[in-house]
Each structure stands twice: as structure tokens, then as C-alpha cells.
Amino acid sequence: MIRIVEANNFSTRRDVENGTDMQRAAVLDILAQVKQNGDQAVLDYTARFDGITLDRMRVSEAEFAEAEQNISPEVREAIEAAAINIRDYHSRQMRQSWMTTKESGTMLGQLIRPLQRVGLYVPGGTAAYPSSVLMNAIPAQVAGVEEIAMVTPPGKDGKVNPGVLVAAQTLGVTEIYKVGGAQAIAALTYGTETIKPVDKIVGPGNIYVALAKREVFGLVDIDMVAGPSEIVVLADNTANPGYVAADLLSQAEHDAMASSVLVTPSRTLAKAVQQEVEKQLAVLPRREIAEKSIRDHGAICIVDSLEQGIDVVNRLAPEHLEVVVEDAMEYVGKLKNAGAIFLGAYSSEPVGDYFAGPNHVLPTNGTARFSSPLNVDDFLKKTSLISYSRQDLLANGQKIVALARQEGLEAHARAIQMRLDNEQN
């Protein structure tokens, strides 16, 4: 049963991303083996961890064709419609290079250009995620990334989930490899005989994937080290308890470490939601996972007022925040920390997960205090552009010399002083 707690000192932050010493040691060994032995190490780990002996890692045209035959028209239509929404939303984030010229002749600017090659990790395991393909690949495409290589664990039949393949093919992503886990992260980082190295790796995964991404950061860029999924619902007595319970369970079914929290000043709603959670859990297909999540990491937090509830929410900085209160828009300005905010009874979290357009790759475990959802900027790099004029160098050169000598960098100072002496003579 989901517990009811008081607001004082309530926190859901969990130190889950760090892993155990044994897990980190295993990841370091996998990274080293793939770096040294390439394809063979990847194939060996795939056989060991996934129980699959692969003839080839890359998904073939025949496998794409088979996936098309095994997907319903309804799902294909949904994928295509979601892709349109996601592309439209992210296209509004695109920024352009800029340049400004001063009267003195100095020109300053910023070049904004896409990354060349990006690796996309799509999880497998307990569920398949076509939506992860859309959410990770589309902002990269909007940014102008030329090459997207996707990795995903094969199923027990040695194949990739047809929904994942159809989502990728819908976007024109055809470089897909049937490998997962830390070995996939290693392959994308170091490259193998089959898989070319990338500039950045994005996409969620299990603890081994998260640890591997953390270890290779610096050799490549990464999006974030994401923890288990989480939702906080801020609700008052106008909320439908059935809706609230359903939304809490929508996150609880992700995995046993997921966190689902209701924050409310209404004890009546709290009791009703507690009962609804039990009722809906009883008929949930992924009941075992959701039940453990609710028991270990779920809570109903009772607050004295919505104002106190907002304080609790800002302290939690949740990945997903639903605001199901009368006049929800009125409170948006006070909600400072959240990965994504869903306003009103009809803005259920799965609307954002799958279809509306905003990205579902969100900061977790309190990191929404300082980080953002995956977006187009994640696939762009900025280069400063400086064309300094003779006039400005003569006017400001001694200031630059003074700053350089203050820092004890005489060669810096002399690089400027030489020009000043030469130009003034």
C-alpha cells in the first residue's frame, strides 16, 4: 500500500545512479575489453548477457521489412503522428549563428553548428520503447546531425522490437546495431570494426548503461546520467482520485525503483487515491513491478496548504510534475524546479511521454534544479568568432597587457605589447 506521510523533511532523493563498487568494476572491465578487442568483445558480451549469438550486429533490410509486417496500422499511424508533433515542437528551439560588427571594425560572433555523429541508446529488457527513438533522434535531426547510429539490446529471438525498428525507419534512421548494455556504450565511444565512434551518446538505460556513460564522458559527450523515472502530482480536492492514482501507476510500472508521489492538502483526496491505487494495482499487467515501486518509493505527502505543497515540489525537483488543482495556470510561476510540468486533469503524464511534442528525456532525482530536458541545443556546438580591428587593439591593448601581467602570464602580455610597439612606431 502507498504510504501517507507528513510534509516535514519529506524527500525522495535516492543515491541510485552511483551503483555499487562491483557494478562499476564490471563496467570498467567491459569498457576495457571492447576498447581492446572490438567486435569480438561486443559479440561475446551479447552472448553472455543477452543469451544471443549474433551472425551480424547491424540490422538488415530484411529485418526492417519484417518489422513493417509485424506492426499494426494503428501503431504506425500513432508513430507518424507523434513524430510530427515532436518535430514541430523541437523545430522552434533551433538557433542560428550570429555576428555583430562595431564601428571600429571589430567583428564578433558565434557559429552554431551540429555535431557530426551521434549515438542513440534505446533500452530493451522489460519493455521496448519506440518513443525513445522519436524523442532522441528527432531533436538531433532538427539540429542537423548528419549521422545517427542506434544501438538497442536484441530480444530473446535475436531481433529488435518491430515498433522500435518502424519508429527508426519512419525517421530515416537505418544504422542500427543489435547490442546493448555497457558494451554498446563502449562500442559507440571507442569504435569497433563494425561500429564507428560517435561524438555524443544519448538515451536512457539500466544502471550498467548509466555507469558506462558516466565513465566515457570526456571522450564523448553524453546527455545526462538518468536515474529511475519519477512523478509528483500536486493536487487539491478538485482532482479525480482515479485519474491521480492511474498517473502515479503510469510511472510505477516503469521499474521497481521508480518513484510516484502525491502532494496534497486534502486528506480526503489522499485516502481516496490510496484506495484507488490498490484497486488499480490489482488488475495491472505489470503489477509486480508497480507494486514494489509503490511500496518502496511511493508516497502521499500531506501538506497544510498548496503554498507548502509548492515548496515541497520545488525541493523534490521532480522529473514529471502534474498540477491538478483549480486554476492550475495560476501556480506556474511559483513552480521553479521540474523537468516537465503537466497542467490540468487532461494533461496526463503519458501525453508528454508519447505524443504532445515536448521531450520525455528529462532530468531525474532532483537534477531539474540545474538541468533541462533533452533539446536541440544538446546536438549543437558553439564556436566563438573574433575579428579584432587595429583600432580596437591600439585602444585596448594596454588593458589586455595589464590583465595578463596581473595573472603572471608574461608571454600573453608580450604577444599584445609586440603589436602595440610595432603599430605605434
TrEMBL record:
Q: Tell me a Gene Ontology molecular-function term this record carries.
A: zinc ion binding
In which residues is substrate bound?
A: 229, 251, 254, 320, 353, 407, 412
Q: Name one GO biological process term.
A: L-histidine biosynthetic process
Annotated Gene Ontology cellular component terms: cytosol
| Gene behind this protein | hisD
EC number(s) for this protein? 1.1.1.23
The family this protein is said to belong to: Belongs to the histidinol dehydrogenase family.
Report the source organism. Answer: Aneurinibacillus soli
Q: How is the cofactor bound?
A: Binds 1 zinc ion per subunit.
Pathway assignment reads:
Amino-acid biosynthesis; L-histidine biosynthesis; L-histidine from 5-phospho-alpha-D-ribose 1-diphosphate: step 9/9
Residues given in the record as Zn(2+) binding sites: 251, 254, 353, 412
- The protein depicted here goes by the name Histidinol dehydrogenase
Give the residues the record marks as binding NAD(+): 121, 183, 206
The catalytic activity, as recorded, is: L-histidinol + 2 NAD(+) + H2O = L-histidine + 2 NADH + 3 H(+)
* Superkingdom of origin organism: Bacteria
